[in-house]
Specification:
The complex is a heterodimer. Chain A is of the alpha+beta class. In chain A, 25% of the residues lie in helices and 34% in strands. The chains are: A alpha+beta, B mainly alpha. Chains A and B meet through strand 6 and helix 3 of A and helix 8 of B. The complex binds adenosine-5'-diphosphate and magnesium ion. Adenosine-5'-diphosphate (ADP) binds next to strand 2 and helix 1 of chain A.
Chain lengths: 365, 285
């Protein structure tokens, strides 16, 4: 088993900086997710760890050893590709056996030992009945399992998964999530999991690194990222529906008061001096689940808005409200009966709001 | 009323198209039919006349050809050369095409464009190259290398000849295979040889089939170089027997027909691969 460390790793493709000075510490046996929008450099980062790309700057360590110039074979990593990359001309058995076959001699395995290992892994993944088939005769979910089996069969130190569930339909995806998690537990293998789906990352990973434009913006547990997103990008990327971001000006510093588009918000928070001055521009981040809709003006509720869109999700609904000249979303229980066009009162849970510097996008408190 | 008119119009159009198609087919088949008839005539003549046909038809020409030891030897030699050519093509051109498809290196585009030009120009350039080749081979032979009469050398020449076109065809086919296929094998510790010959090549069956087919036809049908370096292939044999004081046209026609049969059979078998692979053969840098 092994930990994976990246020290200021940069990778450029011509003028594109695909990975920009990334530093990560992935512990032994950890399920680590790399989360970010498409094109942010996730795959490149994974390929750097695998040894399919070489960094322009920085160091990559696996199990305490610098592997910058090490052949992928000697890094003892296995990768599952987004498109599975099963060998089309080989049966499932031979696909899974391939990693063992090519290094049969150094591993000291004979045909029979290989067969046993393949069957064993296939059984764990529930595909022992498919060993005689060709990849084209399998469903997407089955191909996925074969790809996972092929990556597990030689018991690598590090498991690299590139959006492994993105080609599956929604139901299967949720089911495979649970299986992946238990597989990873069972094998205890250090796992780096790339995805653009925050729900997937949140439900699977021990820790998540959120990336954008080649940079890692924040690393933390799912709770860290949800409760304390250090960057405005992280705030909008984590959580569904995504965080409301409202541009505001500071109108009172002692107990922070904000003037936002068409409404004022007394936060009641007393800030440390020097963090903000009068007239500073900030972004207020409010999660939809912290926006409460009231039909009557109860005590302490000062904001008034109008319902513009209602999206029922089943047990909950997303209600879009116009508030001043902004539009914000609230996540409400389905018991709340409101109609489009209705005037309602809005309570924002000030203790749970996030405040970001408008220039740097970094969290202020 | 009107429906009836439309229906009869359709019938007329259909008859017209059918007749047109038959005429086309006949025009295309005419030379072949002609040669078949010549090969069946009792008299050895190139001109088909009522008199000639009245003398009767016979399959003697075919029996004679099959029993002609020179013909049989020629067929064997052609099969050997064609087989070697296929093996050389796969062993030499495939790895090169792989490199062109997957790696970046200096001069790559220049070579590819050169190949493209070479695979498109024939004619005068080809003849010039042929003369140069002939001179080279005679020189090599005179310093004691067994070049003349050597089927291996002939197969190598054919392979060299096929490099530009086949490299392009296979390269483009490889381009269409996902890179992750090689990368998965690479991470698992496969050598380049394993990746090319055990992963990529078997996954490229259509391209390989077409390469084999073209190699076969190239080797089977070529007679100028074969005659030059005196390898008695069946094509060279037929070519030589078609020149001389008296030409036995009936024998010649029968040989030609027999000679063309393997190519026809191969085309029928490999047909479904040809379209697929040829789509990749067109230049696409
Ligand atoms: N081989 C390559 N050549 C040139 N640019 C590349 C290459 N691979 C990736 N890129 C670029 O690097 C950036 C990051 O790509 P990638 O790592 O694939 O993102 P992600 O996996 O997060 O979608 C993109 O702008 C992409 O166009
Ligand atoms: Mg990607």
């Amino acid at each position: 088993m092994a930990d994976v460390k990246l020290r200021g790793v940069t990778k450029k493709f011509g003028r594109v900086v695909a990975v920009n000075r990334v530093t990560l510490d992935i512990s032994d046996g950890e399920f680590f997710a790399i989360l970010g929008p498409s094109g942010c450099g996730k795959t490149t980062l994974l390929r750097l760890i695998a040894g399919l790309e070489f960094p322009d700057e920085g160091e990559i360590l696996i199990g305490g050893r610098v592997v910058n110039n090490l052949h992928p074979r000697d890094r003892d990593v296995a990768m599952v590709f987004q498109n599975y990359a099963l060998y089309p001309h080989m049966r499932v058995f031979d696909n899974i056996a391939f990693p063992l076959m090519v290094r049969r001699r150094e591993l000291g395995l004979d045909k029979e030992a290989i067969r046993r290992r393949v069957v064993e892994v296939a059984r764990v993944l529930g595909i022992e009945g498919l060993l005689d088939r060709y990849p084209r005769e399998l469903s997407g979910g089955q191909q996925q399992r074969v790809a996972l089996a092929r990556a597990l069969v030689r018991e690598p130190k590090v498991w690299l998964l590139d959006e492994p569930l993105s080609n599956l339909d929604a139901k299967l995806r949720v089911q495979m999530r649970a299986e992946l998690k238990s597989l990873q537990r069972k094998f205890g293998v250090t796992t780096v999991y790339v995805t653009h789906d925050q729900g997937e990352a949140m439900s699977l990973a021990d820790r998540i690194a959120v990336m954008n434009e080649g940079r890692v913006l924040q690393v933390g547990t799912p709770d860290d990222l949800y409760l304390k997103p250090l960057d405005i990008f992280v705030a909008t990327f984590i959580g569904s529906p995504s965080t409301n971001i409202i541009p505001c000006n500071v109108v009172s510093v002692e107990t922070l008061e904000l003037e936002c588009a068409g409404f004022n918000l007394k936060t009641g928070i007393s800030l440390d001096p020097g963090i903000l001055k009068l007239g500073d521009k900030v972004y207020l981040g409010v999660r939809p689940e912290h926006v409460e809709i009231r039909k009557s003006q109860d005590e302490g509720v000062t904001l008034k808005g109008k319902v513009t869109i209602i999206e029922p999700l089943g047990s909950q609904s997303i209600v879009t409200l116009s508030l001043g000249s902004e539009s914000i979303r609230a996540l409400t229980s389905r018991d709340l009966k409101v109609d489009v066009g209705e005037d309602v009162y809005i309570r924002i849970d000030v203790s749970k709001t996030l405040l970001y510097d408008a220039k740097t996008g970094k969290l202020l408190l | 009323m009107f429906r009836g008119f439309l229906d009869s119009m359709q019938v007329i159009i259909r008859i017209f198209l059918t007749v047109l198609a038959l005429i086309l087919v006949f025009a295309l088949l005419y030379p072949i039919i002609y040669v078949v008839i010549v090969s069946l005539l009792v008299g050895q003549t190139l001109i088909i006349s009522i008199d000639a046909i009245r003398m009767g038809l016979t399959v003697d020409r075919y029996l004679g050809t099959i029993n002609d030891p020179d013909f049989v030897r020629g067929v064997t030699m052609s099969l050997v050369v064609a087989f070697l050519h296929i093996v050389f093509s796969v062993l030499l051109i495939t790895p090169a095409a792989y490199a062109f498809s997957r790696f970046k290196f200096r001069g790559k585009d220049t070579i590819l464009i050169l190949y493209l030009i070479l695979s498109q120009v024939g004619g005068g350039f080809g003849i010039a190259a042929l003369i140069a080749l002939y001179v080279l081979l005679v020189k090599l032979n005179s310093i004691g290398l067994p070049v003349i009469g050597n089927p291996v050398v002939l197969a190598l020449i054919y392979t060299a000849w096929a490099v530009p076109f086949q490299t392009w065809l296979i390269k483009n086919y490889f381009d269409s295979l996902p890179r992750e296929l090689d990368e998965a094998a690479f991470i698992d510790g496969a050598s380049w040889g394993t990746i090319v010959f055990k992963v990529i090549l078997p996954a490229s069956r259509p391209a390989m089939t077409v390469i084999a087919l073209f190699s076969f036809m190239g080797a089977w049908g070529e007679f100028i170089i074969a005659s030059f370096i005196k390898v008695p292939t069946v094509a060279a044999y037929i070519y030589q027997t078609a020149a001389g004081q008296t030409i036995f046209w009936g024998d010649f026609a029968a040989r030609t027909i027999l000679f063309s049969i393997p190519v026809v059979i191969l085309f029928v078998i490999a047909q479904r691969y040809i379209g697929e692979a040829m789509r990749y053969g067109a230049g696409k840098l």
